[in-house]
């Protein structure tokens, strides 16, 4: 005789808890080492810029945040496209996780940009092509995350989000090229475009160190956020199965109670 | 103009946001993984 396993069985089981694995632990250590080195280079070893002065130190977090934002939204688009093709939960959760991290870094890019703009341009915000398009991109992906919270059947929500996640990525090249396409207060791209010949070698190294450290952090965050999303879905589905089992048990109980009531009634009517 | 408050502000904002997000992910992961059997946590 086989024992039927209750869906909620296994809850509160002992064992190592968390979303860490050997790989993420190593990556986490590399990321911490990279970020500590970045702080040292940004504040101790790297000199002030001839044009930007000390504010160049904001660039060491602003530019890497921008790169991670682009990467995250590109990964969301890839995840969305693959989900639409094969309806795999893995790609859906990956797209979702990446979008959330992208929104975080996009917000940081806007905040650090504003804090750089105040001493450089004399204002926190101008309705400039780069700033405005970045704000639109931020709102677009906040909308994507909001769409994922709309109640509905899981597959329908995932499909809608995948369509938006795939379409929204079109804004990334627009944001990046906005400084070339329109007259902009924002400086031209120095990392993904042509190299700025005036940038100091150590400053350039610090900028790339920032990108590498933030890149490692992005991969670490995606892995952990994906696992959190996966666990949440497992808990949700086991809760749903438990609720269905409960309803079935209730229905069986109601059926037998009704049957016994019917039997007793018919016994009472009969002479 | 003294630029340092803006520099410190930018770094502090980035550090605070990242630390808070990492802490939230790790705590949420621990809470959820206690409710899922170890055999379903494929990365272990």
Describe the structure.
- The complex is a heterodimer of chains A (271) and B (44).
- Chain A has 271 residues and is an all-alpha fold.
- Chain A contains 7 helices and no strands.
- The longest helix of chain A is centred in the last third of the chain and has 69 residues, at 201-269.
- Chain B is mostly helical and 44 residues long.
- Chain B has one domain (3-40).
- The model of chain B has no long low-confidence stretch (mean pLDDT 90).
Defining key terms:
heterodimer; A: 271 residues; mainly alpha; Four Helix Bundle (Hemerythrin (Met), subunit A); 7 helices; 75% helix; B: 44 residues; 1 helix
Overall 3D form of chain A: elongated
Helix content of chain B: 55-70%
> Can you tell me the overall shape of chain B?
rod-shaped
Indicate the structural class of chain A: mainly alpha
Main pleated sheet of chain B: none
What is the CATH architecture assignment of chain A?
Up-down Bundle
- Pair with the most extensive interface? A-B, 42 and 30 residues
Strand content of chain A: under 5%
Radius of gyration based on Cα positions of chain A: 27 Å
Which stretches of chain B of 5+ consecutive residues score pLDDT under 50?
A: none
How many domain units of chain A? 1
Distance between the termini of chain B: 53 Å
* Structure classification of chain B: mainly alpha
Q: What oligomeric state is this?
A: heterodimer
Helix-strand layout with pairing:
The complex is a heterodimer of chains A (271) and B (44).
Chain A lengths: L21 H24 L10 H31 L2 H33 L7 H21 L4 H15 L2 H11 L19 H69 L2
Helix pairs in contact in A: 1-7, 2-3, 2-5, 2-7, 3-4, 3-5, 3-7, 4-5, 4-6
Chain B lengths: L3 H30 L11
Compact summary:
Chain A is built from seven helices and no strands. Chain A is mostly helical and 271 residues long. Chain A has one domain (28-190, 200-227): Four Helix Bundle (Hemerythrin (Met), subunit A), CATH 1.20.120.
């Amino acid at each position: 005789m086989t024992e039927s396993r209750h869906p909620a069985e296994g809850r509160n089981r002992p064992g190592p808890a968390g979303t860490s694995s050997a790989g993420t632990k190593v990556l986490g250590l590399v990321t911490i080492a990279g970020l500590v080195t970045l702080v040292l280079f940004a504040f101790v070893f790297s000199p002030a810029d001839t044009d930007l002065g000390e504010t160049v130190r904001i660039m060491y977090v602003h530019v890497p945040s921008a790169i991670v934002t682009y990467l995250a939204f590109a990964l969301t688009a890839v995840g969305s496209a693959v989900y639409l093709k094969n309806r795999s939960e893995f790609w859906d959760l990956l797209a979702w996780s990446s979008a959330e991290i992208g929104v975080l870094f996009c917000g940081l890019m806007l905040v650090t940009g504003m804090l750089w703009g105040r001493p450089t341009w004399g204002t926190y915000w101008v309705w400039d092509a780069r700033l405005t398009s970045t704000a639109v991109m931020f709102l677009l992906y906040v909308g994507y995350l909001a769409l994922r919270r709309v109640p509905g059947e899981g597959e329908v929500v995932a499909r809608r989000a995948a369509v938006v996640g795939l379409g929204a990525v079109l804004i990334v090249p627009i944001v990046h090229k906005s400084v070339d396409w329109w007259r902009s207060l924002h400086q031209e791209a120095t990392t993904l475009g042509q190299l700025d010949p005036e940038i100091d070698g150590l400053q350039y190294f610090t900028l790339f160190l920032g990108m590498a450290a933030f890149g490692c952090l992005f991969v670490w965050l995606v892995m952990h956020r994906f696992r959190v999303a996966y666990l949440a879905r497992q808990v949700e589905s086991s809760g749903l199965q438990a609720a269905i089992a409960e309803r079935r048990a209730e229905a069986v109980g109601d059926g037998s109670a009704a049957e016994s009531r019917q039997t007793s009634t018919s016994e009472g009517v009969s002479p | 103009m003294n630029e340092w408050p803006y520099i410190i502000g930018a770094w502090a904002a980035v550090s605070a946001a990242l630390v808070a997000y990492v802490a939230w992910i790790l705590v949420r992961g621990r809470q959820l993984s206690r409710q899922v059997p170890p055999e379903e946590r494929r990365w272990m």
